[in-house]
Every structure is written in structure tokens, then in C-alpha cells.
Amino acid sequence: MRRAADRARFWTVLLLLVGAHFVVRPRLGDPRYAPDFLLIALLFLAFNSRPGVGAAAGFVVGILSDALAPTAFGAAALATTLVGFGAAWTRALFVTDNILVTSLFVFAAAWLRDVIQVVASNQISGHALLWQLLAISPLAALSTAAAALVIRLFLRSWLDGRGS
After folding, report:
1. In a 10 Å sphere around its CB, with 0-12 CB exposed, 13-18 middle and 19+ buried, how is residue 42 labelled?
2. In angstroms, rounded to a whole number, what is the distance separating the alpha carbons of residues 6 and 10?
3. Which single residue of 31, 61, 149, 157 could bond 103 by disulfide (Cβ 3.0 to 4.6 Å)?
């Protein structure tokens, strides 16, 4: 019974993150720098699952993102599939319960996802590409990592499956 309650709490947090992506994120200012709650939900799922599940969840999140911004259809699906797979695989190598390490993983995953998506979309070149990859993407990844840190601090028992 406790195991089912732990799973229900975990999925509740993931659904709240999906809702926050569409309700809270647009109200946080410039969307280029706002935390990506869908990516946080994907990473929390990938950290607690096998690489195949992480890749499948990443593909679903990417298709959802591509459907909302179809200018470079497939770029987000590719990027989030690779990040979901990589997050689950990397987490299997580095089994740690450190919140700061998890935040570092989120930062790296968010930045890597942006790099893959921007390069795969082939929509930006020259100085704009450098500006995107070296300034805007790291700031967006930092805000996503900070949001993941706060979520993890406050909802740690729900995400780890320990219950309260």
C-alpha cells in the first residue's frame, strides 16, 4: 500500500510540474529565461527509471514542444529524447542523493538540450548562434536548475518515494 501511495505522490508532482509549465511559466517574464518545468518533470522521471523509459518520455515531451512551436519540427523531439535517455543512463552511473548534484545534472541537461535543439533546428547562425549557446541557453539552464533545486528541497520526500 505504501508503495502505491509513493508512486501516486511522485506522479502528482510530475503532473503539477506539467501544469506549472503552462500556467506559471508564461507569467515569469521572458520565456527564453523562464524555468522549463516540462524538462524538470522529464528529468525527475528519467532519474527514477531506466534509459528506455527516459528516452520514450523525452520523445513525448519533445513532440509536445514541437507541436506548440512547429518552426523546426523534430528538433525538440530529438533533443529531449537524447536528454531523457542520457539522464537515466547517467543517473544509473552516479547514484547519489545529493540535491546539489541533482541540480548540476538539471543544469547540464537543460543546456545540452538547448544546444542540440538549436543546432538541429538550423535556424540560427553566426553571432546569434554563439549568443544563444553561450549566453541565453546557460541562463535558461540556470533558472531551470534553480527551480529544480527549490522543488527538490520542498518535495524531496514525494520525489524520492520515502513518503512523509
Report:
1. buried
2. 6
3. 149
C-alpha cell at 138: 546557460
C-alpha cell at 144: 531551470
The C-alpha atoms of residue 163 and residue 83 are separated, in whole angstroms, by: 28
How far apart CA 41 and CA 130 sit, in angstroms, is: 28
Which of 110, 121, 143 minimizes the C-alpha distance to 39?
Answer: 110
- DSSP H stretches of helix in the chain: 2-23, 37-47, 51-68, 75-93, 99-121, 127-131, 137-154, 156-160
- CA separation, residue 77 to residues 40, 93, 102 (Å): 16, 24, 23
Cβ 103 vs Cβ 149: under 8 Å: yes
Q: What cell was used for 115?
A: 544546444
pLDDT tens for 6-54 read: 888 999 999 999 999 989 988 988 888 899 999 999 999 998 889 999 9
pLDDT, tens digit (0-9, with 9 covering 90-100), for 87-119? 998 877 776 677 888 899 999 999 999 999 999
